[in-house]
Automatic annotation (TrEMBL):
Residues 11-222 form the Thiaminase-2/PQQC domain. It catalyses: 6-(2-amino-2-carboxyethyl)-7,8-dioxo-1,2,3,4,7,8-hexahydroquinoline-2,4-dicarboxylate + 3 O2 = pyrroloquinoline quinone + 2 H2O2 + 2 H2O + H(+). Its EC number is 1.3.3.11. This is Pyrroloquinoline-quinone synthase. Pathway: Cofactor biosynthesis; pyrroloquinoline quinone biosynthesis.
Amino acid sequence: MTDMLSPDELHARLQAIGDERYHIHHPFHRLLHGGKLTKPQVQAWALNRYYYQASIPRKDATVLARLPTAELRREWRRRLVDHDGDGTAPGGIERWLALTDGLGLDRDYVVSLEGLLPGTRFAVDAYVAFVRDRTLLEAVASSLTEMFSPNIISQRVAGMLKNYDFVSETTLAYFTPRLTQAPVDVAFALDYVKRVPRTRAEQEQVLGALRFKCDLLWAQLDALHFAYVEPGLPPPGAFRP
Ligand SMILES: O=C(O)c1cc(C(=O)O)c2c(n1)C(=O)C(=O)c1cc(C(=O)O)[nH]c1-2
């Protein structure tokens, strides 16, 4: 195989993958922040994305269990607290439910996952399976979409506040801490994927993991778009506005 990439070259390739494939380019994202969706369509987005939120700590617990040293586990367990809370301060899952509440969705219904799109379920479950079944390097690398999340979050929050009267800074409060938490996550993961690979093939695994992760975020918005925008065919059992 060809030569190893320098850390800067690897970083540039990761950035290029995000520039091309991150879900910031998905038509559904543009409709969402552009104010082009109805309230029921925004409800469908929040309901489905709840499953991503609820599964992130399952994913991180899976990675955590595979990390070989106390130092690495200490670093990774912060992610679990970010999403699950610590019993006193609410975590990301709880804050996401404040959004679904604010959109008028029944909490028990959201948490039951009954109305979930199959496409959401398959994409999210694929993330948890990926970090379980692939190398640890790939598992860590798959979190690197967070390099691009502050950008999409800023765009989404600003657009939604401007364009919808049914959301507020309070209901969108989930996103505020992510703007500072994501760069902390990324600093560690990026350093890890630059430091650990010993071969070009391993570096290619890192790039492949990021592509996979971009694809699973994309697939979630595809499922929403197909079911609730165009052609607008929610599968049997899925949330119906
Ligand atoms: O709002 C978004 O578009 C977005 C994207 C991503 C991402 O890129 O995976 C995450 C989040 N949000 C997020 O809130 C979050 O907690 C998160 C954790 C992770 C991860 O892979 O560990 N990604 C993301």
